[in-house]
Amino acid sequence: MKILPSDNSYRTFCELTSGYRMFCVICEALRSGIIDRLEDGAATIAELLAATSLPLAEGQRFITLLVNVGLLEQYDGEICLSRFSRTYLSRSSATSQRHVLAFEPLLMENWRKLGVVLQEGQGTLIREQSPDASRERLQLFQQAMTEAAQVRSRELWDALTQLPESGTIIDIGAGDGAYLREFLLRHPQWQGIACDLPDVCARVAAQSLQENLRVHPCNILDCQELAGLVASHHASADVLLFSNLCHCYSPTENAPLLRQAGALLAEDGLLIVHDFFRDANSFGALYDLHMLVNTYNGRSYSTVETAAMLQNAGFGHNVVIELPSSSLAVVASRKQPYQGGSSLFPLRSHALANGFFAAVELDPAGIRTEAWVRAKCAYGCSQYGKRWSCPPRSMDQAGFQELLGCYSRALLVAGQPPLRAFQERLLDLEKEAFLAGFKKALVFSGGPCCWCESCDDRQCRFPEKRRPSLESCGCDVFALAKSCGIPVAPLRNSDAFVQYIGLLLVD
After folding, report:
1. Domains in the chain, start-ordered, CATH in brackets?
2. What tens digit of pLDDT does each residue of 261-275 get?
3. Residue 253: helix, strand or coil by DSSP?
């Protein structure tokens, strides 16, 4: 999560400082056997206590908590797993994350020593382990990454849709092959090649390979070994995947690796860098520190740095696609941009880099108008009837609702005074969207028009700059901002935080 400038709530402070408590609750729900028992079917509290040997008073309090936080549900006196728990905690779920939960405490050990790393440098905490301990840690890590890949591979291939019916995909640093298996399940006429260290490829091969999945054991940082891939399999790649790989290496290691990839890829092929990026969201920024405390030289790159590395490797076009659980896919190509991208990430990045402190994508169909908002303009605002961008001259409620039906996507932005600068940034954002190919781009402002001190009664002096405010169109801005996670409250005193809300409609 990101703390917005408008958020100074103690609730946010408490949520940040006590988040570890929920992690402990989830782990104990598994360790106690409650989740496993409910996989077999619903049970009363008494039956749960008997099955888990929890004391009556303490067990009741714990089960009540699990219901209150949504890990369990209660109907007609019986307890059952919630949808969330069935998805991520159930043993039988294809997206179970049990090993992720088991591996996290090992990572926490180094996170508690963040200050040491900041003072003494990256790699300070890395210590030699006994072969048994190293083997155990590696096994748990691989199991955790496999579980995470079950979720993230679906997100990735849901987003990458416009691909040929057949071709060859090569996964560099394939791990256990989860991304390849999910891809080939969706595209059975494709051929897949998993490229990784020999012992990793041996584990992939041991999982009874599909007919269209092969392995290529090699050290991917050795250019000669990697170059032998095409000759060995008599095929160049139509899609080349780097998933959760670049963050493991330094820029000096990634640069030649990406350049070498060019020799593996068909001239019109796609190179996909799937990873966490520190300029994309707070999770990506935290992941950069995660690599700082837990690796020798790994890091979370920015999308700008990644684009530069791809440019130097010969990939002049790239499209950024946001995925649901905080990762991104940068789809790079030599000849022309990938046409299947649907993310507004470039516009969000432009907005955040140019003075807005929040930019949230939303569906215009969810924006509602209310008659009382226009009434407040008519009976509570001193500017009513005085400005060309305000009622009764501005777009009315019905017209705004009809206009929203012409769009499928929107970006809500929040900024700070001065109002004129805010409205200038909105126009710049609209222009940026138009030049990016969104021909229907149109912004709605926050607050009254400020291009001149007073409006000419005959006509607007700046029709090219005039945009209606959301309030003037009947939009409940407070409710809209809240639905996008942006706290907005009435100004109670002169030193209260002032913010403006704007809307960009695109299609």
Report:
1. 10-93 (1.10.10.10), 131-341 (3.40.50.150), 348-506 (no CATH)
2. 888 999 999 999 999
3. helix
